[in-house]
Design goal:
The complex is a heterodimer. By secondary structure, chain A is mainly α. In chain A, 58% of the residues lie in helices and 3% in strands. In chain A, strands 1-2 form a two-stranded antiparallel ribbon. A two-stranded antiparallel sheet of chain A has the order 3-4. In chain A, β3 (267-269) and β4 form a beta hairpin. By secondary structure, chain B is mostly helical. Chain B has six helices and no strands. Chains A and B meet through α2, α4, α6, α8 and α10 of A and α2, α4 and α6 of B.
Chain lengths: 370, 120
């Protein structure tokens, strides 16, 4: 209110404000219309710029796409114009307008790929389609989403942006279908279709959340049990059920880590910006998805990954070898054997050169054992 | 900064300070000396904030000197968005951000991205 009065006072008299600094620093109003009025009277171009970016983001939150876009158009070209479209893209995706969000990311220039990442993983969907929907409905939903994403990003100067957007949004689609639902039904994920890896990761993430949220299980006392429980549910087609959570806290995510072993192998984008290998078969891919999902729970330490270092399937053991050192370094007292000891043991036993390189790449920082 | 003090119009005075300080962004000691000459706390905060918006890559040390809560709040719009400090490499397409396919992932695979960060 004070800010609005200051603005009105300055406008009403038609004379310069005696305290332009105080006026410029006054808090912004929450209402986007009032904020836009404030931006229009801002005498300092830098603050007018950030004011409009903020107003555009708030308009996007309310689903006012055209007004948000027009507001960005009034921001000078360059870094802040791109940031404006980035903010609008993020907000629109969270508000459920993925097509318009992608179109905004397509205008975000240098920030387009970051915009895609943020928009995809914040995406909200209508909930009309879920993993229990018939295959044609699932496929139709996926195709509709990806077509909108590609159309929105097609205008970007970098032709790779649209393809990357498609991959990231597809991965986020699989996660969004399952996450927080309290119902991890693996049947939809038992598919060889293109949507399979995204659904398998979505299923594994939700199955892990359900198991880790259930006080009755022994998972917390024996972390290896979580992998076994999820594998058993996958193989037998068992639905894991638990309390739904519309806004579950995000799980821990591994950083992007690419090596020579990744050349020519398909990958799936993961929440947080990482990538996981896609297995050669549906079951192998489910095992990889399970290992990645288990990494999301720091209290399980490095123990769940150790046995997988000897798996005959290269992509599975490489996944375990990438995650084990990260988990060992970041375990928070949940690994009674000690992450460092576990890693040292794994390194001395490893014969596969890829395994050795992956294990050594993320050796724990020097320090006392956990 | 002393020349700016002679400016009668308060807005023009703030602009004068900004123009002068912007020219000192590559001279940290001279910039600090100039900032020290601005005695009004709001004017100093405004100057720091304008510089941070104009040069997001330098926003960290600039915003660290801001005193008032409203100015700190507005600084978060820059500080909370670390990508603003990144610059595209020279080239016709402007390049792609770090972590993108050009930076590492194998051909035909999707690229990685910086982890999502909360909006300010």
């Amino acid at each position: 209110m004070i800010a609005l009065l200051l603005v009105l006072a300055a406008c009403g008299t038609g004379t310069p404000s005696p305290d332009p600094a105080g006026q410029a620093l006054a808090p912004w109003p929450d209402d986007p219309t009032a904020l836009l009025a404030r931006c229009a009277t801002e005498p300092f171009p830098e603050l007018a710029t950030t004011c409009r970016v903020q107003a555009a983001a708030r308009l996007a939150t309310l689903g006012k796409v055209d007004q948000a876009d027009a507001t960005c158009a009034r921001v000078p070209e360059g870094t802040w114009r791109q940031e404006c479209h980035f903010r609008v893209g993020e907000e629109l995706s969270q508000a459920g307008d993925v097509a318009q969000a992608a179109a905004q990311c397509g205008q975000a220039g240098w920030f387009a790929q970051r915009c895609i990442t943020h928009a995809a993983w914040r995406m909200r969907r209508s909930g009309e389609v879920n993993p229990r929907s018939p295959d044609p409905a699932l496929e139709g939903d996926r195709e509709l989403l990806l077509a909108a994403v590609q159309a929105g990003l097609a205008a970007h100067a970098d032709p790779g942006v649209a393809g990357e957007g498609r991959d990231v949004f597809q991965a986020a689609w699989g996660r969004t279908l399952y996450r927080g639902s309290g119902h991890a039904d693996p049947r939809a994920a038992h598919t060889t279709a293109e949507r399979g890896p995204a659904l398998r990761t979505g299923w594994a993430v939700e199955a892990a959340r359900i198991e880790m949220s259930a006080p009755r299980t022994t998972t917390r006392t024996d972390p290896v049990n979580l992998v076994a429980t999820l594998r058993s549910a996958w193989r037998q087609g068992t639905v894991l059920s638990g309390a739904p959570d519309p806004s579950p806290p995000p799980e821990r995510y591994a950083p992007l880590q690419i090596g020579p072993q990744d050349q020519g192998v398909p990958h799936l984008p993961l929440y947080g910006g990482g990538l996981r290998l896609v297995g050669e078969t549906v079951d192998e891919d489910a095992d990889i998805a399970i290992l990645e999902a288990v990494y999301g729970w720091p209290e399980l330490g490095a123990a769940p990954f150790e046995a997988w270092l000897a798996d005959p399937r290269p992509r599975v053991r490489w996944t375990a070898a990438r995650l084990l050192p990260l988990a060992a370094r970041e375990s928070h007292g949940g690994d009674p054997d000690g992450g460092r000891a576990r890693l040292d043991r794994a390194l001395s036993a490893a014969r596969d050169p890829v395994l050795r390189r992956l294990l050594a790449a993320q050796a724990p920082r020097p320090g006392p054992p956990p | 900064m002393a020349d700016c003090e002679a400016t009668g119009d308060p807005t023009a005075r703030e602009d004068c300070r900004f123009t002068l300080a912007q020219g000192l962004l590559d001279q940290p000691e001279a910039l600090q000396a100039a900032l020290a000459q601005v005695s009004e706390p709001d004017s100093r905060d405004l100057l720091l904030l304008r510089l941070a918006v104009a040069a997001p890559a330098r926003s960290g040390p600039l915003c660290a000197q801001v005193q008032s809560a409203p100015a700190r709040d507005k600084c978060r719009q820059v500080l909370g968005r670390p990508h603003l400090s990144t610059q595209p490499p020279p080239g016709p397409s402007g390049g792609t951000p770090p972590g993108s396919p050009a930076a590492g992932p194998p051909p035909g695979s999707p690229g990685g991205e910086a982890p999502p960060v909360p909006a300010p």
